[in-house]
Give the backbone structure.
Amino acid sequence: MFVMRALCKLSSRSRFPWRVAEGDRRFLTVAACSHGTMSGRFYSVSTLLPFNPEVLGCKEIYHIWSSHAYHDARYQIHQERSSIIEEPVDPFSLVADELSILANRLRAMVVAEVPKLASAAEYFFKMGVEGKRFRPTVLLLMASALKMSIPESATDTALNSLSKELRARQQCIAEITEMIHVASLLHDDVLDDADTRRGIGSLNFVMGNKLAVLAGDFLLSRACVALASLKNTEVVTLLATVVEHLVTGETMQMTTSSDQRCSMDYYLQKTYYKTASLISNSCKAIALLAGQTAEVSVLAYDYGRNLGLAYQLIDDVLDFTGTCASLGKGSLSDIRHGIVTAPILFAMEEFPQLRMVVDKGFEDPDNVDIALDYLGKSQGIQRTKDLAAEHASLAAAAVDSLPPTNNEDAIISRRALVDLTQRVISRTK
Amino acid sequence: MVVAEVPKLASAAEYFFKMGVEGKRFRPTVLLLMASALKMSIPESATDTALNSLSKELRARQQCIAEITEMIHVASLLHDDVLDDADTRRGIGSLNFVMGNKLAVLAGDFLLSRACVALASLKNTEVVTLLATVVEHLVTGETMQMTTSSDQRCSMDYYLQKTYYKTASLISNSCKAIALLAGQTAEVSVLAYDYGRNLGLAYQLIDDVLDFTGTCASLGKGSLSDIRHGIVTAPILFAMEEFPQLRMVVDKGFEDPDNVDIALDYLGKSQGIQRTKDLAAEHASLAAAAVDSLPPTNNEDAIISRRALVDLTQRVISRTK
C-alpha cells in the first residue's frame, strides 16, 4: 500500500500517512472524530465527512476517494480496525478522543443565563464543529510531545494522578485558546460584514452585530476565568498578551499607510500578530504548565510560531490559486478587500510598477486583473510557497531539537507534529 | 498602561483618557476610599520601614484594582455606546464610520487584554476570577436589556437583576477585590461587596429618576433618553403597579412620541418617581450600614475614609445631575 503513495498527486513525502489506490482514484485515510478535523483543507471533496456520534471515542478510519470520472465527489465509509497497527500516525486520530472531551467541556463553560447569549455561544460551537480544530490538535500533541518520563505503570497512582492533573490543565489551555480565537472571529467577521453590507441597517442586523460583540466579550471573560483557575501568572500573562496581539494585528491591517502596505517586514509582523501569536504562545504555555525549562518552552514557542506563519503563507497562496479541483482560480478575497499579501509583495520586488497598481487600490476589478497579470508573470506564488516551506522546516527542526525521551506517546506525538508541518504546506484547500 | 504600538489604537486609548478626565472618577474614588477604610492597624511610624513598604505595596496593588476597574468600565462603554450609535445612525455607513466602529471594538478588546495582564500581575486567583466575572456580568446585563420579552420588561425583579449586572456588579466586586487584596476576612469582604452593591443600585435608581426629572436648573424636564430607547426603568415599573393600563402603553413601544407622552402622563399621576427615590434611599442606607459594620479601627485614615464612604451614599441619592 505504501507503493501506491507515489501515485498520489498531493505529495510523495514519506511522512504522509496517505494511502492511495491506483489509477485515478485516491484513497485518503483520515481518522475522524465527531467534531471534524483538518480534513476539509486537504481534500478536494466538497462534501463533509459524515460524523457518527456513536463512534465517539472509537478510532474509526474513513476512506474517501474522489474520481476524475465523476463530477461530484463521492465517498464511502469503510471500517478497517486492523490497519491501525500498520498505519503511521495520523495527528488527528491521536487526539480525537481528547478533542471530543474538550468540546463538551467548552460547551459547559459557555452556557449562559440569557438565551440570546446562549445562541451566540452555539454559533461558537457550530464554528468549532465546522472548523478545523487545528489549534487544539497542535496543543494536545505538543502536550504529549513534552512527556519526558517513561510511562507510569498502573500501580503508580500518585504519579498517574499528577500527570492526569497536568493533562487537564493543558487541555484547559486548548479550550482557552479556542475561546480566544472564536471571540476574535466574532469581533472581526461581523464587523467586516457590516462593512460589506453598508447601508443595510435593520434593527435585527444591528442587534446581531451588537450581540456578536457581546458574545465575543463573554467568551473572553470566560477565558479569563479559566485562565485564572490555572493559577499560573506567567500563563495568564502569555495568553492575555495574545489578545492584545490579535487586536494589534487587526488594527495594523486596517490602518496601513502606503509604505507599510508594501513592506514585507510589516506584513510578516502583522501576520505574526494576527495568526501565529495565538498558537505560539499557547504552545509555550503548554510547556510552562509542564514545568519545562526555558529552552524547551522556547522550542515549543518556535514550533507554534513557524507553523502559524507557514499556515498563513499558504493561506495567502490559496486565496489566489484556489483548490486543485477548481480551475485554479482562488477566491481572491484578500486582494478584493485591499489586503496585500506575500505573493503580491514578492511580485512587487520583480515588477516595481506593480507598486503603483497597488497604490490605486482594488475597488476597481480591472485593477485586480492587472495585479493578477503581474503576479502570474512573477515568481510571487512560488517564492511564497518556498518561504512557507522554510518555516515548516524550522517548525520541524524545533520539534527535533526537543530533549530526547523514551516516552512512547511523546515519540509518536513528535512525529505527528512534524507531519503537521508537511500537511500545512501541502494542503490545497 | 495603554500605550499601543499602532497609532490608531493609541488614539482610541486617548479617548479613554478623555473619558477618564471628563467622567466623575466615581469608581476609583470609591475603591481608594474603601482601601483606606480597611486599614486596621495604627499608622506606621516613619522608622518602621518594613511595615511601611508592605503597606505601600498593598496600596499599589489596590490602586491597580482601581485602574483595572476603569479599564473594564471604559471597554464596556466603547463596546456598548458605539454600537448604539450605529443603531441611531442607521443607514449612514461611510467607511470611516464603520472603521470607527471596528476600531472602537478593537480598542475595547485592547483595554480588556491590558486589564487581564494587569490582573495577572496581582497574582491573586480569586481577584482575577472576580473581575473576569464582572465582564461576564456586564455582557449579560447588556444582553438582558437588548433581548427582553414583554413580561420581562415589566418585571421589577428582572429590572433589578439587570441593573445589578450592568451597574452594580463592577463596583461591588471591585470593592470585594480591594478587601481580598488586603487579606481581610470573608465577612469583611462581604461587607465591602455589600457597600458597593447597594451604592451602585442607589446610583442607578437615581439615574433613572433624573432621566425623567432632569436637573433643578432646567425646567424639570429630563432627557427622557431611556424611555425613547424603549428602556423601561423603575419609575415606570412602579407606575405600572398603580395603573395596570400603563402596561398596554409600554407594550406598544415608544417609537411614537405620542405614546411617550401618554406614559409620562401616567407617571406624573403615579407615585413612581417618589417610590424610586425611596428605594434608592433604602439602598443608600444599606450601604452606609455596611460601612458601619466594619470591624472597629483606630487608624485615622480608615476613620476618615469610612466617614467619606457614608457621605458618598448621601451624595448619590441627593444629586440633581
In short: Chain A touches chain B through 51 residues (CB under 8 Å). The CA atoms of residues 310 and 388 of chain A lie 4 Å apart.
